[in-house]
Amino acid sequence: MPVEKNNIKENHGDIENKEKSEKLNSEEEKKENKKGLEKSEEDKKEEQTIEQILEAKVLKLEEDLKMSEDKYLRLYAEFENFKKRKNQEIATNNKYKSQDIISKLIPSIDNLERAISSVKENDENSQIIKGVKMVCEGVMHALSEEGVEVINPTGQEFDPNYHQAVLKEENKEKESNTILETFQKGYKLKDRVIRPAMVKVNVTEEK
């Protein structure tokens, strides 16, 4: 009987040790699981941090790209505007390139026309007058080929864009604002007035 009691005690002790061991193993497993969970959480946080950093870098790159595109578009627009202005300047210069020489020739044409109109033609001077007329006509023909037009507006309505009123007169037989006389012809090159015509304008009082 004593032997059986000893065996029972030993078995009981083994069971207790086994339970203690299992309990310790369970606690260790819990600790390991807890550590694993904590580590997993840390890994997730680290992954989230890396992802946030990458997203921030991507956003920064997108902003830089947009700024570069905007800068390029502004520069391109400025260049296009500059090119248009230069082309317009060149076209304008080509269109009116002969204006300076024409402006210098006009007074000489005035003198030739005054000389022709002031001299009474006779047998002695007819050839000279004819020669002067031919010179004057030749010059006017050359100017016409360059796009020059004469402004000789007698009988037309006064237009301040083309005419300069130096005298006013009342003539009831004519409509008001009609040009009665041209003292000096004007000239224009294409659509630009080089010199307005000097005129006398009819001004009638309205009743």
Mean of residue pLDDT values: 82
Reading the helices and strands in chain order gives HHHEEEEEE
- The rounded distance between the terminal residues' Cα atoms is 160 Å
The parts where pLDDT drops under 50 for at least 5 residues are: none
By helix and strand content, what is the structural category?
Answer: alpha+beta
Tell me the strand percentage band: 5-15%
Overall geometry: rod-shaped
Strand order of the largest sheet: 1-4-5
Secondary structure: number of strands: 6
Helix content: 55-70%
Protein name: Protein GrpE
Main location: cytoplasm
Biased composition (Basic and acidic residues): 1-48
Subcellular location: Cytoplasm
Describe it for me?
This protein has 207 residues and is α+β, with helices and mostly antiparallel strands. 65% of the residues lie in helices and 15% in strands. It has three helices and six strands. Strands 1-4-5 form a three-stranded antiparallel beta sheet. The chain has a three-stranded mixed beta sheet with strand order 2-6-3, with no helix packed on it. Helix 2 runs antiparallel to helix 3. The longest helix is centred in the N-terminal third of the chain and has 94 residues. Keywords: Chaperone, Cytoplasm, Stress response. Homodimer. Its main location: cytoplasm. It is found in: Cytoplasm.
Question: Quick recap of the structure?
Answer:
The protein has helices spanning 2-95, 99-118, 126-145; strands at 148-151, 163-169, 179-184, 186-189, 192-195, 197-202.
